[in-house]
TrEMBL record:
Pfam families: NTP_transf_3. It comes from Pseudoxanthobacter soli DSM 19599. This is Choline kinase. One of its GO terms (molecular function) is kinase activity. InterPro entries: GlmU-like, MobA-like_NTP_Trfase, Nucleotide-diphossugar_trans. PANTHER family: N-ACETYLMURAMATE ALPHA-1-PHOSPHATE URIDYLYLTRANSFERASE, NUCLEOTIDYL TRANSFERASE. Keywords: Kinase, Magnesium, Nucleotidyltransferase, Transferase. Residues 7-120 form the MobA-like NTP transferase domain.
Amino acid sequence: MSIVKHAVIAAAGLGSRLGHGKPKCLVEVGGVMILKHLLHLVKDVEDVRVVVGFEEKTVISEIVRIRPDVLVVRNPGFRSTTTLHSYELGARHLSGDCLFMDGDMLIEPDGFAAFLATCRPGVPRLGITKAKTLDAVFTTIEGGAATAFSRNEPTTYEWANISWLPIKFFSDIGNTAVYEHLRQYLPMDTMELTSYEIDNEHDLSLAKQNLHHFDLAALAS
């Protein structure tokens, strides 16, 4: 049984690189909204918080329709802050550990469930996936642990933007990328997942070509 009791999903961004004119969490892949897919993955997590910003009323409406017990956290500074700030807002006033994930991903359900099942108190863990996106945070793995991040030096794996982290990691943040902030806490344990971050049309096309990983058919009905 998973010990994960808290989850923060960052869904405040503009989605400008994808260019669909709406938050990426509202994009449909295989007839299923990404937000619905993510909320289904965390259906057994009792405290789920979604951080909203761009087109927040529309996102909130969908959250309420899919899972009314989700706590909505507003990020009014979404145009000038990073995902790191959304994570901090979402986890504010919590203690212990929390699952953090971005709101623009498709994740293979069995692997995600295995990730949750192996989370342990006070032991940070990062989800990694085979490098495939155009804007990857390449991750160096040594002995099963992430030891370095890079935007410029390709490796076999990229960070999947899924993390199990102590809340204290977000007590002192700047306006930087999440991976840059997390560098100070490396090395961290990792677990490989099959996931696709939808940052641009290339990523979206890759995800559509691999729909068999995500078990979306039941959610589309």
